[in-house]
Amino acid sequence: MEKNAGRAAIEAKLSKLIDAFCPILYEDDEIFLENMKGKNLAGDDIRRYQHWEWTQGVGLYGLWKLFAGSKDPKILDILVKYFDRQLAIGFPALNVNTMAPFLTMSYVGAYLGSERYLAPCRESAKWILEHFPRTQEGGFQHMTSDTLNDQELWDDTLFMTVLFLANMGRIEGNQAYIDEAQYQFLLHAKYLADDTTGLWYHGWTFHGRHNFARAFWGRGNCWITIAIPEFLEMVRCPAPVERMLRQILLNQVESLAKYQDESGMWHTLIDDPTSYVESSATCGFAYGILKAVHTGLIDGKYAQAARKALPPVLERISEDGVVEQVSYGTPMGRESKDFYKQIELKSMPYGQALAMLFLIEWLSGPPA
Predict the structure, then answer these.
(1) What is the sign of the dihedral through the CA atoms of 178, 182, 185 and 188?
(2) Which residues pair with 153 in a beta bridge?
(3) Residue 153 near residue 191 (C-beta atoms within 8 A)
(4) How confident is the model at residue 3 (pLDDT cuts 50, 70, 90)?
(5) Residue 77 class from Cβ within 10 Å (0-12 exposed, 13-18 middle, 19+ buried)?
(6) Which of 62, 114, 152, 237 is the most exposed place for a label (fewest CB within 10 A)?
(7) Confidence at residue 31, expressed as pLDDT on a 0 to 100 scale
(8) Cα gap 127→137, rounded to integer Å
(9) Which residues does residue 17 pair with via DSSP β-bridges, in sequence order?
(10) Each residue's pLDDT tens digit, 105-116
(11) What gap in Å lies between CA 187 and CA 247, rounded to an integer?
């Protein structure tokens, strides 16, 4: 009875998350839009970026995962209406962050067999391979809608752009896309994964060859905890590549277990207990760890960390279904780790999505 009651409580929280998701998905980010008026690199109509950025992209992926598991037509309808709306407005210039919504669009297009959705995905994937700005050694430069970030690698890129390229490689049977995705994972790990802890730095620059403030930023790390299991489930990699990525993930997870706060949360600077605990990173870590356990990538003992994270995450989902204690979009802390401690807390679509991913994965097969 206790286990069933626990499941019912989780399902109730998940339902509230979904109900609160759409209003946040379509909520205008005034800070972002004001910034884009003066710093829009492509000179595009700002309306095209308004609801087609990484913040929405992560949220859409949470909805897709929910639909993939439930086949609920109401969820598919939300996604279809969202993509139809953007098709009518037009797409913004391509960069790391505007690629993120295409990941879900590619899944929906393939599921429906719809060229209407697949055609823009196909064009975007081709652009990535042929025209994406590159760093030294061929890395995807973390160019965003308002900043070139010349010669910089950021850990966000693997989730926001590389997963989409890999998925299009799977859908199209295009090995060149899959090969490029594998290279990007390995190159980013080369420069961002810390040799000692296995945690990931937020970024690397080839100008001066350093990791900026050398910050182990929480949400940045959670993109890796999520992206590696997602990638290895999405495409078949050669045995040496899979073995390397599994070890990279294990190195990170071992440190995550070490640095998890007594509350079950993780801090926005993972190794700094004076920084605030943060919900989106906590959900991302718990989801990625559970996903890795359920798919056999890491030992089941690590599910204890996800189990410990569940109660505080549920507590931070309000009665209105909004995830609290989520840090706002975070640029690179270039000089000081203290920069990350000052990021404001704000309800965001990715907070909702990461919580959905965690609860969906828990319900699909919680740890014993």
Answers:
(1) negative
(2) 204
(3) yes
(4) very low
(5) exposed
(6) 114
(7) 67
(8) 19
(9) none
(10) 999 999 999 999
(11) 15
**Nearest CA-CA partner of 78 in 88, 64, 57, 89:** 64
Whole-angstrom distance, CA of residue 222 vs CA of residue 265: 13
CA 166 – CA 173 distance, rounded (Å): 10
Mark residue 260 as left, alpha or beta (left: phi above 0; alpha: psi -120 to 50; beta: remaining). Answer: beta
Q: What are the Cα distances from residue 93, in Å, to 45, 99, 204?
A: 10, 9, 24
Percent of the chain with pLDDT over 90: 83
Integer Cα distance of 96 and 82 in angstroms: 20
Residue for token pair 């160019």: 143
Which pair of structure tokens corresponds to residue 123? 């064009």
Beta-bridge partner residues of 121: none
Single out the residue of 64, 368, 25, 73 nearest to residue 230, CA to CA.
64
What's the whole-number average pLDDT of the chain? 93
- Averaged pLDDT, 9-15: 93
Do 152 and 205 touch, CB atoms closer than 8 A?
Answer: yes
pLDDT for residue 36 is more than 70: no
Nearest to 154 by CA among 168, 140, 134: 140
What pLDDT is attached to residue 324?
A: 97
23-37, 141-155, 158-172, 337-351: segment of lowest average pLDDT? 23-37
- Cβ contacts of 136 within 8 Å, gap of 6 or more: 151, 206
